[in-house]
Model the fold of this input.
Amino acid sequence: MNKNRIKIALTKGRVEKQVVPLLERAGINCDQIRQKKRRLIFDSVQPYEFILAKGPDVTTFLERGAADIGIVGSDILVEHHSTQYELLDLKTGQCQFVLASTKDFDPDEPKRKIIGTKYPNITKKYFDSLGQDVEIIKIEGSVELAPLTGLADAIVDITETGTTIKENNLKIYNYLDKVSTRLVVNRMSLKQHPEEIYSLVDKLEGAIKNENLSKEY
Ligand SMILES: Nc1ncnc2c1ncn2[C@@H]1O[C@H](COP(=O)(O)OP(=O)(O)OP(=O)(O)O)[C@@H](O)[C@H]1O
Ligand SMILES: O=P(O)(O)OC[C@H]1O[C@H](OP(=O)(O)OP(=O)(O)O)[C@H](O)[C@@H]1O
Done:
């Protein structure tokens, strides 16, 4: 690792796929990431160094100062109570939390509900706000299975196109917070490298604006 370069922890997978084209529009050559195979650290994405990590780990790298900048979904930031400083909404990875279940679910039924989710903290906060005590079962993926198999009464999960909900015969009962990919920064790094970090934010902001303008046109 080059200690003088700004280190950016990018969430691998879905976020990476949407953010790499945005970084390229901002003038950053991402060929090394595009040709990555199983590589996880990229030192030739001048003038930065990129690491690819899972979303929750991106927040850990930032909190421990092992990365200067993180690119991660707001779902992860909220769920993990991240205290990192948010500098930019990248307007990618746009989706929304929903409460969903099978069509016979009654959200107003007075019994204590069982809720399946990848996001226990967000789920607890939502039901606390309704004054409802629920049992939460943490699920790692394919959350939609929970109400279909009787594992849970309902789920709190994110949806983008609504296809997964529809194709599994589920129904949305409530819309919760919206989600998008954010650029967050370690506060100490911002103090040490303000010019480099704000210059990246400016370039990305320009790329987002140009993209929106070309969509409008
Ligand atoms: N359907 C979706 N549409 C848009 N953005 C999404 C959607 N699902 C997740 N996201 C966003 O993308 C981020 C990463 O999602 P992704 O599915 O790649 O990771 P993951 O849930 O950790 O999956 P995996 O465990 O398969 O790697 C989420 O934190 C969220 O911000
Ligand atoms: O509304 P849609 O566009 O259909 O997207 C919603 C799906 O996307 C996410 O799952 P993901 O693809 O990350 O897979 P996972 O179930 O393995 O987490 C989410 O958990 C939903 O299952």
The chain has two domains: 6-93+180-216, 95-178. Residues 194-216 form the longest helix (23 residues).
